[in-house]
């Protein structure tokens, strides 16, 4: 791989590239939060309801479904507060309790068909725009971007676990 392929902007050195990635992540986080607030408002959800939905979706995608107790820890709210939140989300049709297949005493949180439909209806156009935005990028670039996101996510989770009062499970 030649120098121009490895770094498309030769004016940026490694620290410069890392700074640009950090800026990009802050911008991504900011606009994602704005979109999340619009989704929440348009579906009569509170900001913490949307945060909970994001935690459930992330856990499902990673193959580690959440219990209410784990959601409480992730969100930094009390068990009674998360119970109230989960009850609201069940009543609104977004979430359901799903018994664990191996331990029937354990209950996970999962999206309902209605919840998935609502999310798909809102975020479908974003998915189409994202695919269009990435269409001209080679697969190797997408694979590299994925590795970057995996590394940054791991670093963020490690940092979070080291924060006072936020011990990792």
Automatic annotation (TrEMBL):
Where is the signal peptide, in residue numbers?
none
Please state every residue range assigned to the domain named HTH marR-type: 18-154
* Alphabetized InterPro entries for the sequence: HTH_MarR-typ, MarR/SlyA-like, Tscrpt_reg_MarR-type_CS, WH-like_DNA-bd_sf, WH_DNA-bd_sf
Q: Name one Pfam family in it.
A: MarR_2
Q: Which UniProt keywords apply?
A: DNA-binding, Transcription, Transcription regulation
Q: Does the keyword Transcription apply?
A: yes
Q: Transmembrane ranges?
A: none
Name of the protein in question: HTH marR-type domain-containing protein
Task: Give the organism the record lists.
Answer: Nocardia rhizosphaerihabitans
């Amino acid at each position: 791989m030649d120098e121009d392929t490895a770094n498309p902007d030769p004016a940026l050195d490694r620290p410069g590239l890392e700074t640009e990635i950090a800026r990009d992540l802050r911008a991504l986080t900011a606009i994602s939060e704005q979109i999340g607030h619009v989704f929440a408002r348009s579906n009569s959800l509170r900001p913490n309801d949307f945060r909970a939905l994001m935690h459930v979706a992330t856990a499902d995608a990673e193959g580690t479904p959440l219990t209410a107790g784990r959601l409480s820890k992730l969100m930094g709210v009390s068990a009674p507060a998360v119970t109230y939140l989960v009850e609201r989300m069940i009543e609104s049709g977004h979430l359901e309790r799903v018994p664990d297949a191996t331990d029937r005493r354990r209950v996970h949180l999962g999206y309902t068909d209605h919840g998935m439909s609502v999310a798909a209806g809102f975020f479908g156009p974003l998915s189409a725009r994202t695919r269009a935005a990435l269409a001209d990028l080679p697969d190797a670039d997408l694979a590299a971007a994925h590795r970057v996101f995996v590394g940054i996510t791991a670093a963020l989770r490690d940092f979070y676990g080291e924060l006072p009062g936020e011990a990792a499970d």
